[in-house]
Amino acid sequence: MSRSTKTVRTLAVSLALALAATACAPGGSTTNEPAASSSASQVSKDVSAAGDVTLTVWDQNTDTGINDAQEELNKQFQQKYPNVKIERVSRSFADLKTTLKLALTSKNPPDVVQANQGYPDMGSFVSGGLLRPEDDYAKLYGWDTYFPEQQLNLNKFTADGKDWQSGNLYGVSQTGEIVGK
Hints:
The chain is an alpha/beta fold. The chain folds into two domains: 1-21 and 43-91; 115-181, no CATH class. Helices cover 41% and strands 11% of the residues. The chain has seven helices and five strands. It has helices at residues 3-23, 64-80, 93-104, 119-127, 135-141, 143-146, 149-153, and strands at 53-59, 84-90, 112-113, 156-157, 168-169. It has a three-stranded parallel sheet. α1 (3-23) packs across α2 (64-80). Residues 1-40 have low confidence and may be disordered.
């Protein structure tokens, strides 16, 4: 399998999992309060049972190859789940870094975002209550066994956003990274 095929498959799995997880979230949130109390018993894999859903998804997939892959994945996801409409907002990495916090604090924040890992971005969003912990979805979809612990740790923070690589899971990596023990 070529490197680009692996990248597309990794992207497909990550997007499908993230979109499916978000589409199945119990109710929609119009506030900046994270749904920290959700548990695996409150989430479902049955995307069609969620009713008509519009997901606003922000990403940084602006390069031609990854943009084309993202568009195709969104198209396939919407074909599989016709009740889900994806409104995609794609920005360069620099633009995403400068506009994402404002978007997350708005009255209508995006449902799924691609946020930079680490203290300056993800940690700041966690400490501000702008991201929802995804531990329940990790259990439901098996992310906690599919992804290596070291990779999951890159997306973990304590609820106050102060301690990185421990605590709750706030996302999954779009692509794999080199990790070692």
